[in-house]
Amino acid sequence: MDLFQRSWAALRTAVAGLADEDFTRPSGCTGWLVRDLVCHLVIDAQDVLITLVTPVTGEPTHDAVTYWHVTDTPPAGNDPLDALTVRLAAAYEDPGLLKFHLDDVGSAAGRAAELADPGLRVSTQDMVLTAGDYLAAYVLEWTLHHLDLIAHLPDAERPPAEGLAQARAMLEEIAGAPFPASWSDEDALRIGTGRRAPTDAERAALTDPPAGRIPLVLG
Questions:
Q1: pLDDT for 123-157, tens place per residue?
Q2: Could you tell me which InterPro entries the record lists for this protein (predicted)?
Q3: Which residues have a Cβ under 8 Å from the Cβ of 86 and sit 6 or more positions away?
Q4: Conformational region of residue 176, where left means phi above 0, alpha means psi within -120 to 50, and beta covers everything else
Q5: H/E segment holding residue 187
Q6: How far is 13 from 50, CA to CA, in rounded Å?
Q7: Cβ–Cβ contacts within 10 Å for residue 39, how many?
Q8: How many angstroms separate the CA atoms of 49 and 175, rounded?
Q9: Distance CA 219, CA 217 (A)
Q10: How far apart are CA 40 and CA 50, in angstroms?
Q11: 196-215 tens-digit pLDDT
Q12: Under 8 Å between Cβ of 163 and 5
């Protein structure tokens, strides 16, 4: 729960520190500008709020790792929600409005997470999880998107080290094997999710399994 807060606060702080011109730069999400990614974060924050205030009574069916749907097919760019996100982002003609909306909804999502009972059962995407597992899954979400945000912004604030380490551990659990120790946490997350291709040296350090499984496309 605490790591969710630190990861989310760091990501929102990084967005708050962006210059207006940064919003039209490419992000680490293929086909998305930084403004599209930030708009997606607003939608994510809304999802967190909705999920945490609609508890259920059913038994958990998933945890922080099995929450993730894994495929080997990158997004084709024709998902209706992705298209809507891009149109919504373009409607924020003033980047300051997008910053404000993220800070407003994002702060509320952070507060809801702070108040949530870790054992509370919540439902999302036809899954039942404890609130603790749901928020733990979002440590990976926030950390990956923080890396996406700063992919072409080298001076922007980086994700917290503990969030990177936890996100890597979760991705390794999803992959079923650790990534090479020679890879930094950032490299493991970027390569492991297909955000960049490994160099020849990095590829040489790979062994099966996770070599046969990456990149992991998370949804």
A1: 999 999 999 999 999 999 999 999 999 999 988 99
A2: DinB/YfiT-like (IPR034660), MDMPI_metal-binding (IPR024344)
A3: 32, 36, 39
A4: left
A5: helix 185-192
A6: 23
A7: 25
A8: 29
A9: 7
A10: 15
A11: 999 999 988 887 666 667 88
A12: no
Residue 192 one-letter amino acid: G
What values do phi and psi take at 105, rounded to 5?
-70, -40
Tell me which amino acid residue 152 is: H
User: Residues in the chain, how many?
Assistant: 219
**Under 8 Å between Cβ of 131 and 120:** yes
Q: Which two tokens stand for residue 168?
A: 């890597």
* Token duo for residue 118: 């870790």
Going by C-alpha positions, the residue among 123, 97, 107, 102 that lies closest to residue 43 is 102
Please check whether residue 179 is in contact with residue 168, taking contact to mean a CB–CB distance below 8 angstroms. Answer: yes
Pair of tokens at residue 56: 């259920």
Cβ neighbours around 56 below 10 Å, total:
14
C-alpha gyration radius of the chain: 17
